[in-house]
């Protein structure tokens, strides 16, 4: 399985995982909200049950305060369980019977059940009336009341499958109760029994049915929209992953092609180094022999000039080959510095001494200014000499006759070692300052350390260049973690600065005073 296929598989699994997580989140939310709605239904039913209980207490309290009430026996049958002397009396309107609080409560309960479906009962663990004996759930509640509980609530389902709420609270003995129950041994404050209320849940549930339906619909809609969004996002991400994988594959192919090209270039340069240097060395050797007339006179001065031109061109071509090889090593990262202590001041003096003959031949004044006791630096001496030779040679090449080149070596205010080469050429336009630092690029105007892109035939031969000098110097100084700073003012000249970082300066190791070459 390829890398791209694995990524797409991971994206698919991630998308499915998000879908499962989203589904779990929404269904969890729906479950929680449904549970809250159910609890609200129970609370509402319990509130109604408590209201029914309180209403019964009010009826009982009024009846007890009145000492009971009399009702015609034509409407209310005498209570056989009420053992009082004045239970039944005769009146002008006919015989009457006493209705005490308990009897009145039973009558009201019957009316309420017919009108509302709410079933209420008076019950006790020691009932006077056998029909008031507790049901199993009422017995459990009464036992809890005797243990100190204040109320009891539970949910159940009838035999017909109707959900109901059972609610019960205790009845305690007060003064009015002793009239009928003094023979049972109760004391004031005792739990004499309780009133249970059974409420059908269906009407209460119907009140919240629209809210429950809306909640389900809302959750389903959000769930569906979320799933669609996740699916669309997963599809987009999968497409982007595919595009990234295609780009990655293309980049890898480009990298392989670049590596192959670099290897081909390295092989070419190695071949060029061998195949070109060998005949060039022969050309240079024979041209020098011709110039020195080792085998005798050449015959005419023209041949001597030709021999000199052959040597000069061969040296130029050999230098170009060496520069190309060095630049290739820098670009490929194969250039390795051989570091050690370097006397920068001595190298500057040595370089200017070697270039003095060239400066005199071109009518250019070459001066050197080295700071006394200039510290040694850590670097590659061969590379540093090559940098100095390149920038001084460039300065001489592009400085007109009668001009001046100044080479300065000192420490800057930040304790960095630096070499500055200034000339009095025509300067470099601002637009060309970056161009002249690129390989095989030259400035649009002949000036100081820059060259020109074209028009070489209309200026002296010594002003032509390969466009590699400053690019090489820039690569070499960056290998030393330093920098090349190019400053120029058109019409006044150019200054190139090689700046070595402070950590390359060897503290306490000063170079001896420079001796003129």
Automatic annotation (TrEMBL):
Gene3D superfamilies membership: 1.10.287.130, 3.30.450.290, Histidine kinase-like ATPase, C-terminal domain
Record-linked CDD domains: HisKA
Residue ranges crossing the lipid bilayer per the database entry: 12-32
Residues in Histidine kinase domain copies: 271-504
Protein name, UniProt field: histidine kinase
One Gene Ontology MF term: phosphorelay sensor kinase activity
This enzyme's EC code(s): 2.7.13.3
Organism, scientific name: Roseospira navarrensis
Swiss-Prot/TrEMBL catalytic activity: ATP + protein L-histidine = ADP + protein N-phospho-L-histidine
Pfam family, one: Tll0287-like
UniProt keyword terms in alphabetical order: Kinase, Membrane, Phosphoprotein, Transferase, Transmembrane, Transmembrane helix, Two-component regulatory system
SMART domains in UniProt: HATPase_c (SM00387), HisKA (SM00388)
Enzyme class: transferase
